[in-house]
Design a protein that fits this description.
This protein has helices at residues 10-28, 35-42, 49-57, 61-64, 72-75, 81-91, 105-119, 129-144. Helices cover 48% and strands 0% of the residues.
Length: 180
């Protein structure tokens, strides 16, 4: 297991994954405004992951791009019609929304926080190996594009001794490179 995260809670590891996603977004697509997506991602560190996944899944390309038109019954609780249009424009020409396809890097990276939450939904943490695998996959995409990795020391404050390894909830926005 990756020793860098041995004492970091699952919530701290989630924050690091989000930091990886943001690094990817600002380096690969610096001309696009990722504020809305980033705000949705960072809710994970201060929210119940079971509730957060419902909200965040509505902005992941492989979910959102299934809809050619806004569907208020499916998306209305989490994304307005204007936000839907904005996201379709934001993702235009940079992702096809292919689920679990590492060659569709944008969709793949935006799925990493969602995957982190889903892999632990309704389960115990165990040794946390799945979270390390997700971190390594995110870091692999960054390395492939020569994007510097985020500083993992920034999440050390979120201790695995807190809340049975889950870590206390916290406002992750100060860790953001997009929301600063």
């Amino acid at each position: 297991m990756d020793d860098r995260f041995a004492l970091v809670s699952l919530n701290g590891r989630m924050a690091y994954v989000i930091m990886c996603v943001e690094a990817f977004l600002v380096h690969k697509y610096p001309d696009r405004d990722w504020t809305f997506v980033s705000e949705k991602m960072w809710k994970a560190t201060s929210d119940n992951w079971g509730d957060w996944t419902d909200e965040f899944s509505a902005v992941i390309p492989d979910v959102l791009l299934q809809y050619t038109e806004y569907d208020s019954a499916e998306l209305g609780r989490f994304v307005t019609e204007n936000e839907f249009r904005m996201l379709k424009t934001l993702y235009g020409c940079i992702t096809a929304g292919h689920e679990d396809d590492p060659s569709d890097e944008l969709n793949y990276m935006l799925n990493k926080p969602f995957e982190m939450a889903m892999v632990y939904e309704g389960t115990g943490i165990g040794d946390g190996a799945e979270s390390i695998r997700i971190i390594e996959e995110a870091e692999s995409i960054l390395r492939k594009s020569a994007i510097p990795l985020p500083d993992c020391s920034e999440v050390l404050f979120s201790s695995s001794n807190e809340f049975h390894g889950w870590g206390n909830r916290f406002d992750g926005k100060p860790l953001s490179v997009i929301l600063k």
